[in-house]
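Hi L.,

As promised, DNA-formamidopyrimidine glycosylase:
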Amino acid sequence: MPELPEVETTVKGLRKTIVGLKIKDVWTDLSTKDKRQKETVANPKFFTVFRKEVSGKKILSVERRAKNILINISGGRTILIHLKMTGHLLYGEYKKDPVNRFIHFAITFTNREKLYFSDMRKFGKITLLDTKTAHDTKHLNNIGPEPLEKMFNLKMFKERLSKKRGGKTKTVLMDQSIIAGIGNIYSDEILWRAGVNPERKVSKLREIEIKLMFKAIKKILSKGIDFGGDSMSDYRNIHGLPGRFQLHHQAYQRTGEKCRKPKCKGIILRKVINDRSAHFCSIHQK
């Protein structure tokens, strides 16, 4: 699933390509009666309304909130896109890569270019919100602070952790109501760098370990953005190209390999924690 660095990479690409463009039309081949998708373009009735409301509107800005992409358009409306497990956006003449062939939604602009949504598993979410109240809706109102913002300091990090003192550290890091944007890949890499075992309960963390985790969050997420996201699976940027963070993994998907920490003789292990895979060093992550 695309996490904060992948979504931020996508948003940066969209800011450079679609801001200022006008929507001519939209298309989808999605169609479901699933009540959980009643307010998304996958629902035919909702799509009819969606199409009418966005056609002719101008793209004003693009922003990110956690793993959500917010495309603000004229008329006081916002298109919210959540990539979920296998979704990614593609613009214009993108690279023809096998993972880019699952097109299920498209926006056509008046300049004849298109923004496509490729989603192999069809779990992605596309809906329409009022811009003024978007952050108060069920889609965004229960999300924790953004970890790369200046206001997210060590004090705030401790306060957020204290809300789930009985939880296992990896699970708490991935809880979107605690901190925004961290998922399976980056939690593994953060904990490897901080030397913390993913099964450790938050209440058992020492002061120095919390400080190391805080520094690792800032470092690892920034590094993920610098490398254009992680394409170990099927994430691609808006030009259809893979990111490079997967070339720098220290823990994630390295099961059975030697730990890369200098002088550490550990082996990377894999263990399922609360239904999610965790990868960690058998020696230095205590």
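The chain is about 25% helix and 20% strand.

Thanks again for sending the construct details.

K.
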